[in-house]
Amino acid sequence: MNVLIYDPSGKYREFYKEVIHEGCADAQIFISGNPREIYGQGMMAPVDLLIAELQLTKQGKTDMREMYFLEDLRRLPRFRFVRLVVVADVLDQEHIVFYHLRSERYYEKPINQKAFREDITELVRHLSGERENWLTEYNRQNRREYLYFTDQRDLYVVRSDMLIRFEKHEKEGFIVTPEGRLRVNIASLRDNPFLFETGLFIYCSRRDYVNRDYIQGISDGELILRDTGERIHLTPAGKENVERLLKIVRL
User: What is the full DSSP assignment across 113-148?
Assistant: First the structure.
């Protein structure tokens, strides 16, 4: 399962990780206090749980910018129905966050760690089971034998097990098969949920997604592909992602 954590203070960072991994040992966790990074990471992979830590008072004055950020995030289609847990420095006496932002849980800082651990561990266990069942059913119903891509007026048909990897740039895309690398219309990548929702293609860097069946291992910060021997650069987040999902031991 995928957990996204907005954590500007960093105070509970290790605690959050510990609790989540108690509920799901192989959960993929991305933590940042930068709203832009949170937004970008949420666009790369489906999010099962969003934990948002809000500091709504600063130097004795009310500061609602982080609340507005969370509200804007919640309006986006990919975040609209994601399970949400809020940790904040004020008491939500009128349950505004609970109703308006549809939060699953709300905790006031300093966190009651015992209650948080009991609640969130149970929630994570439940969500990881949902993700596993959902992926099994999704793959059963939506497994595509052939994938379709376009480039200007050309149509490319590729068997899903022959798509080694793909690159998603800002204005163009590329697909890589045993026959070579082809430029494709970026929309034909973005509009294909199979590429991003099934877990077959793993995010490795800002632009690279690799078919997990073609991964051989990791060496010197690069991903080594089976058969082709190609080496793909891994960002720190990409390396952590690959190692967690595949439990790869460094070569």
Answer: HHHHHHHHHHHHHHHHHHHHHHHHHHHHHH--SEEE
